[in-house]
């Protein structure tokens, strides 16, 4: 696949998750490869309408309600009013292909209820999502014949979040995919000075004073 243009920061920020109803959803997809033909149709249709889509807002509340009004593409997919390539589904979450993938098999795990951020997503829902990462990551990795994958969450606008409905990216990786590496940025050893000690104390104080689940 072509290398995403721009800086590493830009490549991280462009983990967009727009979905378009060009293909019928599949309730049971044994492997990512099974969606290749339909994905090609979706990609062709998307190319014809490039630039015609704006960011999908999520307008729902913070208690798990559907955003309603057709505003949230993920809520619409869950409700069946928008279509996507479904890889896995249970009572709590849904795994679908990202239709603007960074690599083949780039997928998203989304909760079926609407939560705009990690902070508003109940621990039980996050636990359900995380518990499926080994299963889904391994299946996607094997189907795409990759030997690794990244797990990524963009939480908040400044972190590159575009659709404000909690979602986790699974991005298959291979040696020559030309995406970022673990050494994209220069890194310096942590300081053991007063500033770091104050930071640690501040974080621990906030944690200890936070409501317990």
TrEMBL record:
GO biological process, any: purine ribonucleotide metabolic process
PROSITE patterns named in the record: HIT_1, HIT_2
Signal peptide: none
Active-site residues, as the UniProt record annotates them: 167
Coiled coil: none
Gene Ontology MF annotations: adenylylsulfatase activity
Family matches, as SUPFAM superfamilies: HIT-like
Motif Histidine triad motif location, chain numbering: 165-169
HIT domain span: 73-180
PANTHER family: ADENYLYLSULFATASE HINT3 (PTHR47670)
Record protein name field: HIT domain-containing protein
Source species: Sorghum bicolor
Source species taxonomy: Eukaryota, Viridiplantae, Streptophyta, Embryophyta, Tracheophyta
């Amino acid at each position: 696949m072509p290398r995403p243009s721009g800086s590493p920061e830009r490549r991280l920020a462009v983990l967009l998750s727009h979905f378009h109803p060009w293909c019928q959803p599949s309730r049971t997809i044994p492997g990512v490869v099974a969606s290749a033909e339909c994905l090609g149709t979706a990609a062709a249709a998307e190319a014809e309408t490039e630039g015609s889509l704006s960011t999908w807002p999520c307008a729902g509340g913070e208690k798990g309600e559907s955003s309603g009004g057709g505003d949230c593409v993920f809520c619409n997919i869950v409700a069946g009013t928008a279509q996507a390539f479904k890889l896995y589904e249970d009572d709590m979450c849904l795994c679908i292909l990202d239709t603007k993938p960074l690599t083949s098999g780039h997928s998203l795990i989304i909760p079926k209820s609407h939560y705009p951020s990690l902070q508003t997503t109940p621990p039980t829902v996050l636990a359900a999502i995380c518990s499926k990462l080994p299963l889904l990551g391994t299946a996607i990795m094997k189907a795409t014949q990759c030997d690794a994958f990244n797990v990524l969450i963009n939480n908040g606008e400044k972190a590159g979040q575009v659709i404000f409905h909690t979602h986790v990216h699974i991005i298959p990786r291979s040696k020559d995919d030309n995406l970022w590496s673990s050494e994209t940025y220069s890194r310096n050893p942590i300081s053991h000075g007063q500033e770091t000690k104050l930071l640690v104390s501040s974080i621990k104080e906030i944690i200890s004073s936070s409501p317990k689940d």
